[in-house]
């Protein structure tokens, strides 16, 4: 039996497998029945039987103040799974960053090699194939630092792509600048990642950028009275909220703000207070899991204001599509966008991964396009300075997430795609 410690970094291909997903803390009768059915289906179709489980209890991450008892140790769990005939066990370590996304979303973020595959299939860059070196930071800053240092000293990387989230990106960016390794994060949104670092770039827009644009968009729709709900425990939420508030006041919009913490799960008292404001819009810059709870409780309280948010809302359709109906949020990618670049990407992605892409996959693909275009304009591929300058000069119109050019701090200037939730699905509202 093969044991995989992290699905995000493994080279294994899970496209042709049957997978049972669960905590399987005791591998009891019910668990065995599910796993045996998975094994049976795999054997009948000549595929591998995979169990996706967790090295630590996800509830320990959500509720660290509570103690959770384990029926079996991980070693015992592996023994029991092997005795059942499982081919592969993914023993996934869970942290807060992991829980921000579904497992499939995380796979799509970090394992999306579609663009690289296309580049190499077309002959590479100036006759040279692209080689990917991967490492898993586990969402931890120190792990990210260690991985980057190894990539530089041992793997001799020419370009660094990452990190996914802002925290590790902020830690690595100064190191990349010092080592003069061109770095580009597809999804890190914190403004300071690139500030003052001419070797560091990003594909996504920044927190302040989308906060400003959302405020301007609200003004264009005649909104005059807005309440902002801010998660004080999230740099993402605070960054968007501050930029939005500043711009909204410039636009003559009356703004009220209420705050909550990352540990809050019951928002009813807060929302009851907000309901009394009779605001036209409630702007909530946070990630979709928290947004889902807020929207569910707001609906219970009969709040009918227009809800708006930032790109962290992408994923709301997974479990909270119905309660999010009518909500509008800023993004960079809409699945129903008729743009030929978007539709070509979606078709290619579905053919490769047999599933629909999300915003992170689109940004990852565009990062590949940026690098491909830049590298084709570099005479000496061993020159980090030439690579850096070529990325800086990128001015592309053939991207999935819209035309892009870099400002003085190497942040992209692009239109914001506004998404409306309709009947539980994400639909293109307009580009602004």
CATH superfamily of the largest domain: Response regulator
Q: Give the class from helix and strand content and strand pairing.
A: alpha/beta
User: Could you tell me the number of beta strands?
Assistant: 17
CATH topology of the largest domain: Rossmann fold
The CATH level-2 architecture of the largest domain is identified as 3-Layer(aba) Sandwich
Q: Cα distance, first to last residue?
A: 52 Å
Q: Compute the CA-based radius of gyration.
A: 23 Å
The strand line-up of the biggest sheet is 9-8-10-11-12-16-17
Mean pLDDT over the full residue set: 86
**Overall 3D shape:** globular
Features:
single chain; 432 residues; Rossmann fold; 3 domains; 16 helices; 17 strands; 41% helix; 17% strand
Provide a quick synopsis of the model.
The chain is α/β, with parallel strands linked by helices and 432 residues long. The protein contains 16 helices and 17 strands. The strands form four sheets. The protein has a seven-stranded mixed sheet with strand order 9-8-10-11-12-16-17, covered by helices on one side. Strands 1-4-3-2 form a four-stranded parallel sheet. Strands 5-6-7 form a three-stranded parallel sheet.
């Amino acid at each position: 039996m093969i044991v995989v410690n992290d699905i995000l970094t493994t080279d294994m291909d899970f496209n042709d497998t049957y997978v049972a997903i669960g905590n399987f803390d005791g591998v009891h009768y019910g668990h065995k029945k599910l796993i045996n059915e998975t094994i049976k289906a795999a054997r009948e179709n000549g595929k591998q039987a995979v169990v996706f489980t967790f090295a630590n209890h996800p509830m320990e991450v959500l509720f660290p103040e509570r103690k959770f008892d384990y029926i079996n140790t991980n070693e015992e769990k592996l023994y029991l799974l092997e005795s059942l005939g499982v081919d592969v066990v993914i023993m996934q370590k869970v942290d807060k960053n992991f829980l921000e996304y579904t497992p499939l979303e995380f796979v799509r973020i970090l394992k999306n090699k579609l663009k690289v595959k296309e580049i190499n299939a077309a002959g590479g860059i100036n006759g040279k194939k692209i080689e990917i070196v991967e490492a898993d930071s586990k969402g931890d800053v120190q792990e990210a630092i260690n991985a980057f240092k190894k990539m530089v000293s041992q793997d001799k990387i020419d370009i660094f792509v990452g990190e996914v989230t802002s925290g590790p990106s902020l830690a690595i960016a100064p190191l990349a600048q010092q080592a003069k390794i061109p770095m580009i994060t597809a999804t890190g949104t914190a403004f300071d990642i690139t500030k003052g670092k001419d070797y560091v770039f990003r594909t996504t827009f920044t927190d302040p950028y989308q906060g400003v644009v959302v405020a301007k968009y609200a003004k264009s729709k005649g909104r005059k009275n807005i309440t902002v709900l801010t998660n004080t425990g999230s740099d993402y939420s605070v960054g968007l909220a501050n930029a939005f508030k500043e711009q909204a006041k410039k636009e003559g919009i009356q703004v009220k703000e209420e705050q909550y913490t990352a540990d809050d799960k019951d928002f009813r008292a807060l929302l009851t207070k907000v309901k009394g404001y009779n605001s036209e819009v409630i702007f909530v810059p946070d990630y979709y899991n928290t947004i889902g709870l807020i929207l569910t409780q707001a609906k219970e309280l009969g709040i009918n204001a227009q809800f708006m948010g930032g790109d962290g809302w992408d994923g709301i359709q997974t479990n909270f599509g119905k309660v999010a109906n009518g909500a509008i949020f800023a993004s960079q990618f809409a699945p129903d966008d008729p743009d030929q670049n978007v539709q070509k990407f979606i078709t290619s992605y579905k053919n490769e991964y047999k599933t629909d892409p999300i915003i992170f996959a689109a940004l990852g693909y565009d990062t590949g396009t940026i690098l491909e275009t830049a590298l084709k304009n570099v005479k000496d591929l061993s020159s980090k300075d030439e690579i850096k300058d070529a990325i800086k000069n990128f001015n592309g119109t053939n991207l999935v997430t819209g035309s892009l050019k870099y400002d003085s701090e190497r942040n992209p200037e692009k239109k914001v795609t506004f998404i409306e939730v309709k009947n539980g699905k994400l639909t293109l509202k307009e580009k602004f």
